[in-house]
Structures are given as structure tokens and as C-alpha cells.
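call fold(seq) -> C-alpha cells
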Amino acid sequence: MTNIRFLRLRKFSYVVSAVLLILSLLGIFVKGFNLGLDFTGGYLYEVKFEKQEEISDLRKELHKVGLKSVFIQETKEGTYIIKIRIDEDIKKLEEALKELGKYELVRKEKISGVVSEELKRKAVYAILTALGGILIYLGFRFQPIWGLGAILALAHDVIVVLGAYSWTYREVNLEVVSAILIVAGYSVADTVVIFDRIRENLRKRKGFSLEEIMDLSVNQTLSRTIMTSLTTFITALTLFVLGGQALSNIMFAFVVGIIVGTFSSVFVASAFVLDIYKLLGRAEVKPA
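ret:
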């Protein structure tokens, strides 16, 4: 077992977290997001070519004419569903389709901005509901202060992932929102494992300070944290590199989230709890 004094590094970890949060918030509020069709509204084309085309060729042709935000899906009937944002030029889309060969327009629809605004609200409600539910769960499972520490670490992870999407200008759609919620759950699960060990050690080891107990507990769970994070990260990175445009965009949330979530579970969550207790001036700490 390692014997690293993680809590002594908490000031350094706070500086790293502060830098990440400031950069992320600047990206979110100054640069903004590259919102996908789900949130902006747009057009849907379903087409069928006389000669079967590869999705990669179709995507390449659309990018060639300057269409950047494009979603393409092949159906079991042999047709292609193409979605573009409301601010894209549909004439360019139609020109690109003609270049690929003769095709039949099966349907053409406009996705209204009203629906998109509703999806935006639902996405925000989904994130807030998830965070609220996690806070309530942690408040019941541990002391409320421990729940607060975990939710602060969780908010830290979500903001940094959103900031990464803002700075890289990757498309944010409903699939990405779902991925961020999954990453949030992953991060909390890792934090709960460490908190459980801290609670167990508080009951077993008398005469130790809270900081010593926390350091011991993080070291005891460190091998589990590293192995779990590393195997998940390798899988996510493989899909990010080899999964194609749509899957790569979703897996970006996992790649960034696993790194940030592991950092916050080990360095930030316990540090928050310790400093909250110190601010409250509690010399004695009961088991969570």
C-alpha cells in the first residue's frame, strides 16, 4: 500500500482546480457552445440513392461544400437520414447530393426552434435533477457535509467537461448531455468508495486525526481507483480514436471526465470535506 500524504497537497490541487474552472467558465460564458441540431433546430432530409453510397463518402462530400454540423444515419431500408442545423445552407446540401448521383427524396422536414428550446430546458432539468438526486442520496448515506463535499467535486467535474467542449468547439447534443450525466455518476461512485473507507476507518482507528484517516483511506483505495479509471479510460480512448465522428464526439466526454473525475475523487472531494470541518471549527469528527 502506498503512503502518500494527499491532503497535504490539497492547496496545490485547489490551484489546479481553480485554473481548470476559470478556463472552463470563460469558455462557457465567453466562447459558448457549438450546439447541435437538437438544440438549434434545423432540417431533416431522408434520401435514397440509385447506387448505394458509403456514409464516409457522403460525409466527405458534405464537408467539401462547407457543411460542418451534419448528422448522417443509414436506415435498414437503405435510405440515409441527413440532419443539418438551421444556420446551414440547404442549397449546398442539395448540390452535394446531386454530385453523388441520382437520388430520391423520401422526406424533408423542418425541426422547429420551439422543439429545440424545449429540448434545451429538458437537458438543463435533467442535469439539475441528477445533481439534486445525488446530493440527497449522499446526504442520507453520509453526513450532510460529506454530501456537500462530494457534490462540489461533482460540479467541478461537470463544469470542466463542459468547458472542454466549449474550447474545442465540439458539438453538444442530447447524446453528449447523456454522456456527461454518466460521467457524473462514474465520478460520484469513485468518491463514494473513498468516503466509505474513510467512514470505516473512523470507526476502527481511534486517536488519529481526520486528515490522517483521510490520507490512509485514499491510499487504501488508490490501487482500485487507478485500475478502474485506467481500464475505463483505455476503452473510452480507443472508441474516441477509432469510433468515427459521431461516437468520437460522445466519447470525448468520457475521456476528459475520467481524467478529471479521478483527480477530483482523489485530491478534491476529501479535501473539501476536511476544510469544511476546519472552517466550522470542529475538533472532533464523528463517523460519517
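The CA atoms of residues 240 and 251 lie 5 Å apart.
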